[in-house]
Write a structure and sequence with these properties.
CATH topology: Four Helix Bundle (Hemerythrin (Met), subunit A)
Structural class: mainly alpha
Distance between the termini: 45 Å
CATH class: Mainly Alpha
Number of helices: 6
Helix content: over 70%
Order of helices and strands: HHHHHH
Number of domains: 1
Number of strands: 0
Strand content: under 5%
Length: 205
């Protein structure tokens, strides 16, 4: 597997270059980073709906929030690439290395937190989808539906990666301290919030 350079995996690089990196055997970017990019696409589509809805203060305010959320999603994509590099390095340590367990646990917790941030962006986007589903220009209903599907995929990807990291945390936290146990509890609660948000998409107009 090629050595990953997080700076080459940034979502702000040209799309074709980013996709080339995604297709390489580096893990950075990987599925978590791709999930965040899907959320950035959802944010962009939702903002387009807002911009096509003149005369609505709600749509205008939503459009401003969506700019922030799009940037946040791209930052989350970059952060997830960095977490993926750290986790890959920990997994690559020899099993007899005495530092392996602690490094793997720390990397898994950090990876889970990265997935939570991706999921939290998605939760915020669900609220904007609700707003624009009510007040948005209905000539753009197809674009709104595409945004919903991108949002569903991004949230689903965040959950897949969060659960994978939580499995690693559970497998490598035997005998760990209270701080790690507290972190796992917080991450499990975040998993439930993200799951609920994804499920709520079916109930939105």
């Amino acid at each position: 597997m090629a050595e990953a350079d997080p700076s080459d995996a940034r979502a702000s690089i040209p799309l074709e270059q980013w996709l080339d990196r995604l297709g390489e055997a580096t893990g950075a970017p990987g599925g978590g980073s791709a999930s965040a990019v899907m959320l950035a696409l959802a944010a962009g589509l939702l903002r387009m709906v807002a911009e096509y809805t003149p005369g609505s203060d709600e749509a205008k305010a939503s459009g401003q929030r969506l700019l922030v959320l799009r940037t946040r999603a791209l930052h989350a994509s970059d952060a997830d690439s960095e977490a993926s590099v750290a986790l890959g390095a920990a997994l690559a340590l020899p099993t007899e290395d005495p530092a392996r367990e602690s490094r793997l646990l720390r990397a898994a917790v950090d990876g889970a937190r990265s997935s939570v941030e991706v999921g939290e962006v998605g939760i915020a986007l669900v609220a904007e989808l609700d707003v624009l589903g009510r007040v948005g220009n209905h000539h753009l209903d197809a674009d709104l539906a595409v945004a919903r599907e991108a949002l569903r995929a991004g949230l689903g990807g965040a959950l897949v990666n969060l659960r994978a990291n939580l499995d690693l945390v559970a497998a490598h936290s035997a005998g760990s301290g209270e701080a790690e146990s507290t972190s796992e509890g917080e991450l499990r609660r975040a998993e439930r919030r993200i799951t609920h948000a994804r499920g709520s998409l079916a109930e939105l107009p």
